[in-house]
Input
Amino acid sequence: MRDEGLISAAEKNSAPTGGRRFAVGDVHGCSRTLRVLLGQVLRLEPADTLFLLGDYLDRGPDSKGVLDYLMTLIEDGYDLRPLMGNHEEMALKSVADPAARALWYANRGDLTVEQFSAATPQEIPRRYLEFMAGLPRMLVTGDYVFVHAGLDFSRPFPLRDTAPSFMLWEGEFRVQPEKLAGRTLVCGHTRTPLAQIRASLNDQLIRLDNGCFWKGHPGFGNLVALNLDTRELLVQENCDPAPKTLFF
Output
């Protein structure tokens, strides 16, 4: 089932530039691991296209460093296509409304605020807030759909009709392939064992959140990238120091 008028603009905006194509799962403040994955494992080039599935903040030791690295790559001409995750949404809502801070801090937003040397979310520099506010919730190509958490397949046209909150928060859904018109749905958000990710590489739903920050837990603790052209999974073990306070 394909509604050309509804998705053609999204596909045009997500069209790759002609190099290799990769997707990377949730980073969660693991800036050193991200740098190793992109620089040494993928050997990312400006002609490549890199989709990132959101959740750059919280839980890990250097959320500011993750945003700095991504913004620098974009400024240097790399073709990055970062999505918004629910942690970025929580951060933005906490800046707009102090009452929203409790939920973000319960998900370790307090660590992120400290990593910006800030006392409150409102003290995070504007350039970072503007970057996060400009992130899309979904990207579509001819063969893939990228979204942080999931799509609502109870809707006739999930690419059009899924609520923004569902895209960022809802990890429980059943894919209806006919509503993807042959595409594969690639998500983060739901922490998934590495063996399960590998087993899904030929399915129409691939989840790439291996809980990078979750060091020492069997089957987790890696930042993973999917080569979208070959369906090869590339894995970098967490090489970041632990944050000062552990809470998952």
